[in-house]
Amino acid sequence: MIRTAAALLALFALAPAASAQETPEWSLAIHGGAGTLLRENMTPEQEAEYRAAMQAALDAGAKVLAEGGSAMDAVEAAIVRLEDDPKFNAGRGAVFTWEGTNEMDASVMDGSNRAAGAVAGVGTVRHPIRLARAVMDDGRHVFLSGDGAEQFAGEKGLEIVPPEWFATEHRRRQLEEMKAKNLSALDVEFKFGTVGAVARDRQGHLAAGTSTGGMTGKRWGRIGDSPVIGAGTYADDRACAVSATGWGEFFIRAGVAHAICDRMLLAGEGVQQAADTVMADVAQMGGDGGVIAVSKDGEAVFSFNTPGMYRARANSSGMSEVAIFAED
Ligand code: ASP
User: Fold this and answer.
1) Residue 185: is its pLDDT beyond 70?
2) Ligand 1, residues 107, 212, 309: which to mutate, most atoms within 8 A of Cβ?
3) Cα angle, residue 90 at apex, residues 89 and 91 outer, rounded to 5°
């Protein structure tokens, strides 16, 4: 009898430990944009290149988290890799404006104190995500733009490169094709190539970051959702961290990243349900794209309404996966 009671007690004692294991110590998700990604339009070599690039960025962020680093450092490490990779529409490889320049936007948010930093329309800072981080760390402002943001980058000692650093042939061709055929940015190959990352670290803190060249052929100083806190990026330790990619005008109007966290916080929804509900709302409005999100419990999810999204996730329980097409 006593032995049975002792065994039962031992079982109960084990129960919390067993369920605690379901929450990974750390968790990370990244994206490299969403759009018309169809297997039949991609050669096996191209697919392998994208998968390798996503894996490398995932590994860079996972390394930081596995070594006990912060969610914010992991987000930055993953995004810096993607900004340097010309395949993605961020940093090197950014899309062209109508005038033939590259103007980049980026933002970060720290879920532990909801500090945030964002920049728009920068053309000489090698890693716009680092500039967004510097704005946040400086703390006086949240959102800087254009020449002022570049001046701030210089004062903070960030790496400055000539504008040609960002220009790539395939992006120039996309602009030329758009102009020649009178297309909209949405008809251009792959559509959205923005990059982003969300993470939960061992301390239970969340962070999010997003970096982009915007949309091909953008004019008049157009700014999308990526640097807008609450639209393209949001993090709150009480709920989740989100990074978006897609038709920015709709993501701004729906306040996508904030809306997802809000549904979790106020309506008690799980992270997948909250993300799916908000993305359905975006679709209803006529927008498309996708999000990555990680919950305060380390659950990393994707939600998108395009045929594909470059995406990957990893956690301390040994998960490490890369996916491109919807059916992956
Ligand atoms: N959301 C970005 C923008 O509207 C584009 C993208 O996701 O690629 O600027």
Assistant:
1) no
2) 212
3) 130
